[in-house]
Amino acid sequence: MAKTVTIKDVAAHAEVSVGTVSRVLSKNSTVKAPLAERVNKAIAELGYKPNFAARALRAKHINVIGLLVPDITNPFFSQLADKLEGLASARGHALIVSSSRNDSRFEARQFNALLEHQPKAILLVPASDQRLFDLPDSTVVYGLDRPAPGLRTFGVDQRASAALGLKHLVDLGHRQVVYIAGPQTTITGRQRREGVEAQARALREAGIDLNLDIREGTFDFQSGETIARAVLSGPSGGDVPTGILAANDQIAIGVVRAARDMRIDVPGELSVIGFDDIDLASLVVPRLTTIRQPVDAIASAAMDAIFAEETEAADHLAMGRLCERQSTQVRA
């Protein structure tokens, strides 16, 4: 049988120390480029395959970071994963992405499966308030996007950011408004609704005659379309909304699709606002007005904390920003 090539063989072939080879394998930036090239050439010539499992036993983790999201088909989570992957790669780490499918029991299975890879850290977007797994002592776990009880969370101020959407509709003259909330089984769904309700109370206290109808949905296109058909098919007159605020962009795009099928002009007869600013928001027609989550800033803050090995408990909450496009206009 052929002899297994070891890290010592690579070091001897490249005429460097074993430590230098190890630093090259971990993509340590302190290794000068000519030296790194020599080591990589030796690795290629000898056909060396790093034993990541053995390295993990010594270093307590393999150079990977875990990301567990509720729904990998949700464009917002895809964009977040893409940003995190780039940031992890720049630090010599790979990102392993897994989905809980919005199921707490499956989330527990997937979380434990990620732990088997001995990651440096796990970023968790919780499926619900119910956590059916124990947090590990040896692996850093941060909450991401959605507040996670007991975990430091990186995301936006959900309440204050959601309130921006309702204020924008009212500033445009809309008084008959429907808010399609996200599932109340999630903290995000509840906090965004709380923000909208608090803004509605403040506006009424300021003397604005606002009629706000709240409907609960799920974070997907079909939910927006189904609820929009119901509220837009109501009796004629004041009960039909002139503005719809959605808990995320997928819901909002579903609303726009329903309005189009019902021959209701957006924004001429109906203004629509989403939340997240996924890539699709600027591609649909009309282009969607939305509350932008600063994905780059959130991902960067979380990744910086992981590699700085921060132990502080304070959440990192950014503020969303109104991104006005073509799906809203002044109420005629």
How is this structure best described in words?
Keywords: DNA-binding, Transcription, Transcription regulation. This is Glucose-resistance amylase regulator. GO terms for molecular function: DNA-binding transcription factor activity; transcription cis-regulatory region binding. The model has no long low-confidence stretch (mean pLDDT 91). Helix 7 crosses helix 8. The strands form two sheets. Strands 2-1-3-4-5-11 form a six-stranded parallel beta sheet, sandwiched between helices. Helix 5 links the parallel strand 1 and strand 2. It has three domains: 44 residues, lambda repressor-like DNA-binding domains (434 Repressor (Amino-terminal Domain), Orthogonal Bundle); 93 residues, 3-Layer(aba) Sandwich (Rossmann fold); 136 residues, Response regulator (Rossmann fold), CATH 3.40.50. By secondary structure, it is α/β, with parallel strands linked by helices.
Radius of gyration, in angstroms, nearest whole number:
25 Å
Structural class of the helix and strand makeup?
alpha/beta
Write down the CATH class of the largest domain.
Alpha Beta
The largest beta-sheet arranges its strands as 2-1-3-4-5-11
Q: What is the strand content?
A: 15-25%
Number of domains: 3
Protein name: Glucose-resistance amylase regulator
GO molecular function: DNA-binding transcription factor activity; transcription cis-regulatory region binding
Keywords: DNA-binding, Transcription, Transcription regulation
Organism: Tritonibacter multivorans
